[in-house]
User: Fold this.
Amino acid sequence: MTDRKDEIAGNLAAVEERIGAACAAAGRPREEVTLIVVTKTYPAADVRILSELGVRHVAENRDQDAAPKAAECSDLPLAWHFVGQLQTNKVRSVVGYADVVQSVDRSRLVTTLSREAVRAGREVGCLIQVALDAGESARGERGGVAPGGIAELADLVAGSPGLRMDGLMTVAPLTGEYAGRERAAFERMMDLSTDLRRTHPAATMVSAGMSADLEQAVAAGATHVRVGTAVLGVRPRLG
Ligand SMILES: *Cc1c(COP(=O)(O)O)cnc(C)c1O
Assistant:
């Protein structure tokens, strides 16, 4: 256990150094960027270690794994982010522990989130997940709405009881015009964020960048990076 804590502490320090260097290079204060550690596939014991090491934001992508983990860690001062594709039949469970749902990408999900948040007496922060590789009206293969669909969804979230319109999230596309051009993809996200803030000034979060491309995200202006592998190690393959 001590070994694991040392390992995570070392990785965390290296990631912290990367974020610090990226902020310095971009002329941004370090406090502008929040580290979210993606704990998917890793046990609650690792979440506890992260909390002891000062991490305050964790993310999960599957409710089946996240719900018991969050319950085991309910004594810890952590904000839980849900970052996976979310089926409406899982929303009641997710709303029970998630402070922020980063994968909002369709109106039916918004209405279900609102209903369940109200029922649970909770306020849930929402990020619209943007698929930069989707066509103008289509949805992305890994979830996410095309840029043209952001405004309508944002209005719906903002008008829904129990929900808070917090901003945008994306995963750098593997295909299409932005494949291999993470920096350009994240800069496009910042433009979309500027547009969104004209009508929703409080929706300032831009969640972008993972282990491999956090520097490009920080350079573009991301406010939140979601880092898994670089902190916890290479994930065992899911069946
Ligand atoms: C797994 C995951 C991450 C973290 O990816 P790493 O490459 O392990 O840092 C970030 N965002 C989402 C949506 C994920 O599913």
Remarks:
- The first strand starts at residue 34 and ends at 38.
- The chain has one domain: 2-229.
- Residues 2-26 form the longest helix (25 residues).
- The chain has a mean pLDDT of 95.
